[in-house]
Amino acid sequence: MAPIQPAQYDPQWDDGGGEGRSRGRKVARFAVPVAVAGVAAATIGLVPALADAGDPSLPSLTAEQLLTKIAASHVQTVSGSVKVTTDLGLPSALSSGAASSLFGGGAGASAKAPGTGAGSPAAPQTQLTQLLAGTHTLHVAADGPDRQKVSVIEPAAEYSIVHNGTQVWAYDSASNQAYHQTLPQRQSGATAHSDPQDLPATPQDAAKQVIKAADGTASFTVDGTARVAGHSAYELLIRPEHAPDTTVGAIRIAVDAKTGVPLKLTVDPRGGGKAVFDIGYTKVSFAKPAASTFDFTPGKGVKVTEGTDQAPKNTPDRAGTQPDVLGSGWDAIAVVKSADGLPTGKQRNDSGRADSLLNSFGKQVSGSFGTGTLFHTRLVNALLTDNGTLYVGAVSESALTGAADAAHTAGK
Amino acid sequence: MSRAETTATGPDDREQDRTEAAADTAAPAVRAPKAVWSLGLFRSELITVFRRWRTLALLAVLAGVPLLVGIAVRIETGNGGSLGGGRDNGNGPAFIEQVSNNGLFLTFASLAATLPFFLPMAIGVVAGDSVAGEASAGTLRYLLVAPAGRTRLLLVKYGSVLTFCLAATLVVTASALATGFALFPVGEVTLLSGTDISLSEGLLRALLIAVLVAASLVGIAALGLFVSTLTDSGISAMAATVGLLITVQIVDNIPQLHAFQPYLFPHYWLSFADILRDPVGWDGIAKNLGLQALYAAVFGSAAWARFTSRDVTA
């Protein structure tokens, strides 16, 4: 072993002269963690900024050319992550429960007609309404019109809907329950998305619905370019025209320059501020997803709820709850007379609870129609009159009361 | 000021020169190479850590958690009833619903249950004690007498804390596997996305998750080490580390503070669940590991700055 040597005398450790040097060295050493933190902060701040910097330069297109490009796009296979943000300005406590009863009946989302099997936590009706508030990440995969999968990514859980031919499975990992439904043959071939929900889960779906609805009632312009999920894209700007009452300010759709696939859709309210609805890919690939993606067999011990055939049974059902529509285009107001579409049993209890919750943030209004409660969000407004009629639309509050007045006068 | 400290606090290069010189002149044949010598220090440090009753008690508590969860789930579902009296939306701990159908999920459920507090608390105790404990026991200066240098001693201390992170996670995993396999049926694993994978692949993913959970604790280990170099009292270092952990966990759960949350070390801890998706979501995992590396770099270098320049009086 090395002999233990007495330490050398080091004047630095004496009081006095060495003190300053020691302190300087201390400061120098503490500069290291500070520098590391600084570099990290700069990286965190700069990298996303650099990644977003610079809109791609693309050959300019007219709006018509861009719309043709979207229509001509035949991309059938896609997989990727989608981020959906909905900011209606609702208190977050009201998010799912109230949102479902608020929009379920009236906003024209036909899927949420009182359906079968809605009691199961795995039923799509129960689950997908949560997308109406907050930010969610979805994982989507599609291979043609017959095979799709949408997964809602939750912390340490996931909710998936798998559509494969006539089979629709939904699996909720948090409650370990599944929901199964067999679609009638004809329906599965007829529409591109015959999932039991009409809520758009991909930017493509959302863009298709919007473009179809806005045709002829809005101005379409190409508004520069952007990068979305690593793809160069054109920005299509849609502004409502001849619609003084609508609360929709503008809709932007980012369209992939190469494939013509809509990659992102944003709805801005007329009142300004943050986007009300924002759906866009954060990662996307147009490669064909593995076939096994669309296979689902419930594992051992998974409780399966069978949903009965919705389509034939629901048709008369829906006719009852199908809202009358006043006006057209952007100013359209849906009217639901709850007298004929009154939900029964358990559902009534649910909506009763939601009603009392809603009353706490609605505001009382009156007019020639009588009195009612007005619910205001950043995009959709709803008026529930005391005689049970619900007026809903993406229109201003005064337009709603005006419509109620007009309906009252006409009814006399 | 002790002589020992004077010896040990010189600039590192001089110290190393001296060590090498000593090795060269005195007994080159007997003296093992430096790297091996570091390992020796590391080994002795490990033995010190793992022989402590306190460490063993911590590990025993951690091993007890999966046992407790497993038995509770078994009793609740034993008569065929569903968990939580048919509760609807699965608001319980993560993965708990799947446990009764597949014992492997007890591993994930236990790790998800211990990761927020039990595991980091144990790490906080060991890390907080690492330097301050030696100081309060009066043994720190003797450690510094050895010509190892403070930097190397600190690295060895951090290494032993990280080893404890891995050991603690593996104890939870092993106990959960044993309990799960003993109490529940085991078979094909249904991933969160509804896809089935074989049991062997499930076991591999469980192992990967255990390693990820251990890696999630790197940040708090560095934080604890830094706190430990600040004080001479082992107890206060442990209390400060655990207190910090609790504070950060609370801040991480206040929605109004969401702007800060992505920079808090526990924020992405549950990202290990992404391993159980199909396709596996690596984004959150990468963020978690990056954040842990950042905490390790910042607080590790802060611990180094403090430890190499402080006066050791005890």
Automatic annotation (TrEMBL), chain A:
Gene3D superfamilies xrefs: Lipoprotein localisation LolA/LolB/LppX
Q: Positions of the region Disordered?
A: 1-24, 105-124, 183-203, 303-323
So which domain of life are we looking at?
A: Bacteria
Annotated transmembrane regions: 30-51
Q: Membrane: is it a keyword of this entry?
A: yes
What keywords were assigned to this record? Membrane, Transmembrane, Transmembrane helix
| Low complexity: compositionally biased ranges | 109-124
Q: List the SUPFAM superfamilies hit by this protein, alphabetically.
A: Prokaryotic lipoproteins and lipoprotein localization factors
Xref: InterPro entries: LolA/LolB/LppX, Sporulation_related
Q: What is this protein called?
A: DUF2092 domain-containing protein
Q: Which organism was this protein described from?
A: Actinacidiphila acididurans
TrEMBL record, chain B:
Query: Where exactly are the transmembrane stretches of this chain?
Result: 56-75, 104-127, 161-184, 204-227
Annotated segments matching region Disordered: 1-26
Composition bias (Basic and acidic residues) maps to 11-21
Keywords, A to Z, come to: Membrane, Transmembrane, Transmembrane helix
A Pfam family in this protein? ABC2_membrane_2
User: What is the protein named?
Assistant: ABC transporter permease subunit
